[in-house]
Amino acid sequence: MSNSIFNNWAPEHTRDWNQRPLNLAHRLHNNPLFSAETLAKLIESYPRSGYALVHTSQGNDGTRRWREGDMTGVDGQQVLDTIQNGSMWLNLRDVGQHDRRYGALLEAAYAEMAAQVPGFEPQALKMGILISSPLARVHYHCDLPGQALWQISGRKRVYVYPPQPPFLRPQALEDIALSGFEFKLGYQSEFDAQAEVIELEPGHMLTWPLNSPHRIENHDCLNLSVTTEHWTPENRRLQKVNLANAVLRHHLKYTAQSRSTQGVAYVGKVLLQAAWRRSPWAAHTQQAHRPVEFKLKPGAPGELIDLPASLR
After folding, report:
1. Radius of gyration (C-alpha) of the chain in whole angstroms
2. Which end of the chain has the least Cβ crowding within 10 Å, N or C?
3. What's the rounded Cα separation, in Å, for the pair 141 and 248?
4. Mutual orientation of helices 263-278 and 233-251 as an angle, nearest 10°?
5. What is the pTM of this model?
């Protein structure tokens, strides 16, 4: 049996890389690293600073509320059972740094991609494990690094939109680069007519052109997915331009028209964004983390303990 991660990579996948959404077959869903038993142990050992446990609810006015939680001291299988039965998701961030086995898998996956796509030079790789409740949703947003979404179990529907106006405006990328908050996009239901809609099944990986807005709807089943991100030399340059343009617009009241990553103007923007990163204003601009508002109750799947404001 082949040790490769991808099944049946075809010439058209190489041709269409970063040009349109690609739905590629993989073997990660058969890897024992993603078994329930292994994941339960991983959850129990995960540092508090390395994950986001979020409970979502809807208020009487229709607004959706997100609350950050803590799973310290809770059995890993109980965490999985709680997510199975509640409006909740768990994101184990940068899992390759926490457990080298996942880091090796991440590197192997990207080595295969780089071998198939001439000129693709992925850097600063990261892997996350996302466990989400039945019918959970990820709202319309875009990401600054390159992204891929690998389905391990469960099914979800993914809507991918073109990375261009009106779906995505340059000012939105600039604002995300400045604030670190990726949901600053104005979704409109009529956008769906131009979306590519993909039913993501176990054993399939979805990737899309850089910065493509997307949103996700779980089907009525627990979903286990892997998210991976990467940078390339070109999108690192674009990130510097985005940040510099945002600083110019928000703080110097000048709207830059160019997004070029070449020439004298680009060099000036590299220097500007580097100076901004070192400035005291940069720390105040970044999006603040949500306070921890609840804990899971050990031995009681699905039961949440609300924390008083003084303990958040």
Report:
1. 20
2. N
3. 23
4. 70
5. 0.91
Q: Which residue has the higher pLDDT, 139 or 196?
A: 196
> In 3-state terms, what secondary structure has residue 89?
strand
How far is residue 138's CA from residue 66's CA, in Å, rounded to a whole number?
A: 12
**pLDDT tens, position by position, 251-269:** 889 999 889 999 999 999 9
- Identify whether the C-beta of residue 15 lies closer than 8 Å to the C-beta of residue 36: no
Contacts of 58 (CB under 8 A, 6+ apart): 64, 65
Angle between helices 233-251 and 170-179 (to 10 degrees): 90
pLDDT level of residue 1 (50, 70, 90 thresholds): very low
Helices (H), 137-279: 170-179, 233-251, 263-278
**Burial classification of residue 211, based on how many CB atoms lie within 10 Å of its CB (0-12 exposed, 13-18 middle, 19 or more buried):** buried
Q: Which residues pair with 295 in a beta bridge?
A: 70, 305
C-alpha–C-alpha distance, residues 92 and 312, integer Å = 21
Beta strands in the chain (DSSP E): 6-7, 22-26, 51-58, 64-70, 88-92, 123-132, 137-141, 146-153, 156-160, 196-200, 204-207, 214-218, 223-231, 292-296, 304-306
- 127 in Cβ contact with 201 (< 8 Å): no
- For the chain, the farthest-separated pair of C-alpha atoms sits apart, in whole angstroms, at 62
| Integer Cα distance of 72 and 69 in angstroms | 10
DSSP assignment of 219-237: -SS-EEEEEEEEE-HHHHH
Whole-number Å distance between alpha carbons of 124 and 34: 23
> Which helix (H) or strand (E) is 36 found in, with range?
helix 36-45
What sections of 59-212 are H helices per DSSP?
Answer: 76-85, 95-98, 100-116, 170-179
Beta bridge partner(s), residue 76: none
